[in-house]
Amino acid sequence: MPKRLCILGSTGSIGTSTLDIVALHPDQFDVTILAAANSVERLAHQIIQFQPKMAVLFDEKRVDHLKALLGETDEGRGALSALEIVWGSDGYRLAAAHPDVDAVLLAMVGAAGLMPALAAIDAGKQIALANKETLVMAGELVMARAKERDVTIYPVDSEHSAIFQCLEGNRRGDLKKIFLTASGGPFRKTPLDRFPHIQPDDALNHPTWAMGHKITIDSATLMNKALEVVEAVHLFSLTEDQVEVVVHPQSIVHSMVGFTDGAIMAQMGLPDMRSAISYALSWPQRLDLQLDFPDFPGLHQLEFEAPDGERFPSLGFARAVCRAGGTLPAVMNAANEIAVQAFLDHQIDFPGIFDLIEKIMGEHHHIASPNLDQIIEADGWAREAALSSI
User: Fold this and answer.
1) What gap in Å lies between CA 152 and CA 130, rounded to an integer?
2) Parallel, antiparallel, or unpaired: how do β-strands 3-8 and 29-36 relate?
3) C-alpha to C-alpha distance for 150 and 273, rounded to whole angstroms
4) Do 104 and 8 touch, CB atoms closer than 8 A?
5) Distance between CA atoms of 94 and 116, rounded to whole angstroms?
6) Which of 96, 128, 297, 355 is a plausible cystine mate for 116, CB 3.0–4.6 Å?
7) Are strands 243-247 and 175-182 parallel, antiparallel or unpaired?
8) Are 255 and 267 in contact (CB under 8 A)?
């Protein structure tokens, strides 16, 4: 019987790659729910192609637009006749816990993924996690609830998927350290005095990966890697000093695990998210995705170097929030989301992203052992404080 999927964030890069996998293996998956924040036109095309039972929109005002688009063709009208449309935060939580769903792919961007993740965990769903902010904001609470409900969280980030794969068949007690690889982004060699002149279009030109705007800017600032450090600590029950970030411009080695005997295992492949997505959804099975292998003779060399903390202070922020815990990770994440959007809107310059995050983290009144409400309150405070500072 095909696995019934709820794809939260179906119109983004992860969501569309997931649907490519579904189209390639229709015997393995059935799309039950699709959800999108803004891309109504793309969502309408997906609904026509995959005929889900439910569609979710973040904004209720876009529902009529979606119905109108579906009503333009016979295929669309047929899909609409069997479709339930819900919206808003409640709609996302309803979708994540839907009884006709086996697995939930959390591909939403930012803090909006936290509550649907908890809803899916409470409903006992298999979770494929591409929304790293969920574990950054509330990693201890999320992982504790997943353990309580006997829910496994399968990582979709290429780096965490690589760690997950390297650990399979090995004793967790033998793990000594993990190495998260980073491409270094487009400004790895850019002189620091040029940073104030970086424009959004420059930052959106990633050298190896094709991703959405927010994650691409995060990659340019290395904040994406900072978030992944925090995520890895929670996902694999590590301490902060067990996670080392290594810049690897070719993006062939997706990450590595070091063991107590000095052995290191690496997971490699071309930079294509479909591999990590499919493994999270089909584990322990591997699907034929018709992807090529790296041309190793053509690569000539694989480079590794330490990240530049002066250029990219994001990793320092990550170390600080790992040590502090509590509400500070949520504050860092929220400030970053506001800062990235402000940069894309030409309200602050590129170094201003780091300045704003550091400022908001420094002003926060830290709570060491918060409950969920306090984490959400800290997230809201950080957003308001960041907006007021711009």
Assistant:
1) 14
2) parallel
3) 27
4) yes
5) 8
6) 96
7) parallel
8) yes
